[in-house]
Amino acid sequence: MIEVRDLKVRYAGRTVADVPELDVGAGECVAIVGESGSGKSTTLLALLGLTEGAEVSGRVRVCGVDVLEAPPRELRRIRGARAALVLQSPQAALSPATRLGVLMRRALRLHGRDDGEPAMALAMEAVLLDPAILRRYPHEVSGGQAQRFAIALAIALGAEVILADEPTSALDVTVQAEVVGVLRRLRVERDLALLLVSHDLALVSTIADRVLVMKDGAVVESGPAARVLAEPAHPYTRELLEALP
Amino acid sequence: MTLLRAEAVTLGYGRRPVVHDVTLDITEGGVGLIGESGSGKTTLARAFLGLLTPISGNIWYGDQILKNADLRAFRKDVQPVFQAESLDPRMRVGRSVAEALPRNARHRVAELLEQVGLDPTLAARRPHELSGGQRQRVVIARALAVGPRLLILDEPTSALDVTVQARILDLLTGLDTERLLITHNLAVVERLCRTSYVLFAGRVVESGPTGDLLAKPAHPYTRALRDAVPKLGGPPPEARGRTEAVPAATGCAYRLRCPLAAPVCEQPPPLRELDGRHVACHRAQDVPVS
Predict the structure, then answer these.
(1) The ABC transporter domain covers which part of the protein (chain B) (predicted)?
(2) Which pLDDT belongs to residue A235?
(3) For chain B: N or C, fewer Cβ within 10 A?
(4) ipTM
């Protein structure tokens, strides 16, 4: 579902992300870990062609679309629909004056879907949210509910790929466990490809199949999560693991 | 005698109480306040800093009630450490630290910056010219300037990268001060606090030695918190009970979320002693250990 080769993202001549290889298949979960400024979020945004003002080279294919070559029309068709972005604070991305149900209906219409109501009901059920929440405004729901709504939106639109940037780091641990549970289940039930950006190595170790460790824009280590996190080969990965409290 | 003690305090904003009948001693070895957003941790910290007067009950500072105490002495003894964003963005960090020092001791800025592991030349920079970890060190240096006996730390590392967090935790462990730590990060509490209090909906539901609390939680909420924390190479974090349910207005506040809830939980559970800790749960004996 995601295939990246020799991706380089540069701002003003400075390379902020250099990813030689990244593949995520259907039903797989790959995590990019690293600290602030390591280039992990930039990599994620580059996969949807959202790095405005940057010089991007290499090859990026998402859901069969060549992101760096495709015309804007084609990109719009995968963005949000086939490949959905889930951010750290969904409430900040949701229009504060629009009820959640109106928002979801509008998104479905925008992507040319006319099965609004049944798709919405199924999506809400998939993330274990009470459909009554659709009548609320974003500030009337909790952080965990807003995050599950963001995932429901992706499901309703028929996402095959979810790109999640620190999706649980603003949530309480109990709520985080719930959101992670939803993502894990959807991945199996719907064969979703999940690319997760996180600084939480412990969390990553429990859900990711493969891991890329990034530092200062470069991938310093990658491989199966169980191996990389149990027997880290790079000193930086070791440092990250030793820093866990 | 403990430096600070809450005695049956109820706290709130306007007439709405958000912390109910909490008794808590800040004892040696660090005290942790654990709970989710909205559990009342920060409200309690505000009361301990004298920023909020209890609706009922008292905060004791030594042998005096805090609201009657000499606030100059209190501010020297008890200092807050909030997230690094509490620095004035326009002020050079050296001046931020100097402000906390008496006029004749301003030369100590360099010494304080060194104490928290910062290069004294950074004093000339403004907060945005420093990294998140460096800013947090400045906040700690400023708190240490008056030589406090107790630091009240509100999520001091939650916005930091894990390697930076580790270094700040090392710094805090090495300081010669007592601490009250507010956090939702159980691993951090385990490292810094000998005793912990778990708050749910403004009430202490369990308190005792941190190690025991996490190894053998006696309250279903403590267990839910512990099991929700992902462990390296461990099983995926588990959600126990429904996190969406609002706290119950009568009886045990946790009962609508609790997997062990029974009819008896419609009665408010008293805080009772059990295996060397205090727990407010009718069904504490039935909480599975593993």
Answers:
(1) 4-226
(2) 95
(3) C
(4) 0.77
The class that CATH gives domain B4-215 is alpha beta
CB atoms < 10 A from the CB of B251, how many?
A: 17
Averaged pLDDT of chain B: 90
* pLDDT at residue B201 is higher than 70: yes
- CB of A213 less than 8 A from some CB of B: no
- What homologous superfamily is domain A2-242 in, according to CATH? P-loop containing nucleotide triphosphate hydrolases (3.40.50.300)
- Chain B partners of A180 at a C-beta cutoff of 8 Å? 230, 236-237
Long-range interactions of B108-116: CB distance < 8 A, separation 24+: B108/B145, B112/B141, B112/B142, B112/B144, B112/B145, B113/B137, B113/B138, B113/B141, B115/B141, B115/B144, B116/B140, B116/B141, B116/B144, B116/B171
Note whether A202 contacts B186, CB cutoff 8 Å.
no
Identify the weakest region by mean pLDDT among A7-11, A232-236, B90-94, B227-231: B227-231
- A169 vs A15, residue with greater confidence: A15
A238 Cβ under 8 Å from any chain B Cβ: no
- Give the closest-approach CA distance of A69 to chain B in angstroms: 35
- Which among B166, B184, B190 has CB closest to A172? B184
Sorted by where each begins, the domain ranges of chain B are: 4-215
- Distance between CA atoms of A22 and A43, rounded to whole angstroms? 10
Count the Cβ atoms, other than its own, within 10 Å of residue B87: 21
Q: Where are the domains of chain A?
A: 2-242
